[in-house]
Design a protein that fits this description.
416 residues, alpha+beta, SH3 type barrels, MgtE N-terminal fold, 3-stranded mixed beta sheet
């Protein structure tokens, strides 16, 4: 077994594989957890955050770390697979300390923390002892202007001011460095933050990005973030959300707030949401998507393929084209049938959709229960199904992802 190192920098640990004592891969290290011990004592390192299969992040205490090398980390004993939740005085080094602005004790200026050095004490505990800092220096030019010159230095923990003089990591920097992260993974990162930090980061997201991320968060945190926004911005974010997700979120807020937000939303977007909110909870109409791909029987296969290529469509929604008599806006004219994407790919581009309709699969009633919808999707191996009202007009479609949230436990996003 490799010897335990007594000093290491956090940036070198990120992404390293973490193995259990038997050599089986547990996951990858994503962050380091330290606990503040006041302005006079360096924060203690209490553990690491490991991303295990399934994108779940779990906590491994430092007492379980048996070996740390430049290529891998080995832990000992059993690891609690419960999802990591930040508590009390805990801080995440990457999420909260990297890019924090600090002031040097010698009054030589300020800098940005780029890395954090950990050292092991004689007692075997770990604590922060150094920062790798990008120094920011202001100098006068010949024209009398101030120019910022940067160089990087290694400074001890005692060499920077802590407490009020230490600025928190900017939320916009966190947003920028995680710009490529999938919405579901970004939501996981938000979920693990403290409430205060979660609101700071959410406030710096663009409306469309925040809408995508909100849809992946538990209901309680969706409401928490939406309530922290101004009414005008909250309405803008709701407009960017899928109508069914926006309706689910509005169902969780007070009637007064719901009314105000709907009034501020774009009239067309608000109307879609109002129609969903009008359905009893647990019915097909309450969870459907009111804007599936809809065409007439005279539309060609080429037109249909162009329609399902739209980037904003989810894979499940793009799998089926619903064919109706005009008008094409929901509620449409009489529902005629559907065309699956496989049929589109097999047919000639000029062929009209009316010639390749699947008329055997019945649509669901908008008052059907979610249980009936799930059974229908499973019976016919479908990813989506049309929803009609009692007049036989298409009012929307339900996809697999629409119903999954409603058949899984309420806390599935944060389940242990």
């Amino acid at each position: 077994m490799s010897a335990q190192v007594s000093k290491i920098f956090v940036a070198r640990l990120l992404g390293l594989d973490v193995f259990d004592p038997l050599g089986d891969r547990l996951g990858r290290l994503r962050d380091v957890v330290v606990v503040s011990r006041g302005p006079q004592k360096a924060p203690a390192c209490v553990g690491v955050v490991v991303e295990v299969p399934g994108k779940r992040r779990v906590f491994v205490p430092m007492t379980r770390i048996q070996s740390m090398e430049s290529t891998q980390i080995i832990c000992s004993g059993l690891v609690n697979m419960r999802r990591f939740q930040q508590r009390g005085q805990e801080m995440l080094v990457v999420a909260e300390i990297f890019d924090r602005t600090v002031t040097f004790v010698d009054a030589s200026g300020r800098g940005l923390i780029e890395d954090v050095g950990l050292t092991q004490t004689r007692r075997g505990d770990w604590e922060i002892n150094e920062y790798y800092v990008q120094r920011i220096e202001a100098t006068n030019t010949l024209l009398g202007l101030r120019n910022r010159r940067r160089n990087k230095v290694l400074v001890s923990w005692e060499g920077v001011r802590h407490g009020a003089q230490s600025e928190p990591q900017s939320a916009d920097n966190f947003v920028a460095t995680h710009d490529e992260m999938k919405a579901a993974d970004f939501a996981d990162a938000l979920h693990e933050m403290t409430g205060k930090r979660r609101l700071e980061v959410a406030a710096h997201l663009q409306d469309d990005r925040l809408a995508d991320v909100l849809q992946e968060l538990p209901d309680r945190e969706q409401v928490e973030i939406l309530s922290a926004l101004s009414l005008e911005r909250a309405a803008d974010v709701l407009e960017e959300m899928d109508p069914d997700d926006a309706a689910d979120l509005l169902a969780e807020v007070s009637e007064d707030t719901k009314h105000q937000l709907l009034e501020l939303m774009n009239e067309e977007e608000a109307e879609d949401v109002r129609r969903l909110l009008a359905y009893p909870e647990g019915t097909a109409g309450s969870v459907m998507t009111p804007v599936p791909v809809i065409l007439t029987p005279e539309s060609s296969v080429a037109e249909a393929l162009a329609s399902v290529r739209m980037e904003e469509l989810s894979p499940a929604l793009a799998s089926t084209v619903y064919v109706v008599r005009p008008p094409l806006e929901t509620p449409t004219g009489r529902y005629l049938g559907q065309v699956h994407i496989q049929a589109l790919l097999r047919a000639a581009p000029p062929e009209p959709l009316g010639d390749i309709l699947d008329k055997e699969l019945e649509p669901m009633s908008d008052l059907s229960s979610i249980t009936d919808v799930v059974r229908h999707l499973a019976t016919y191996n479908l990813t989506s199904v049309g929803v009609v009202n009692n007049e036989g007009r298409l009012v929307g479609a339900i996809t697999v992802d629409d119903v999954l949230d409603h058949i899984l436990p309420d806390d599935w996003r944060s389940a242990d």
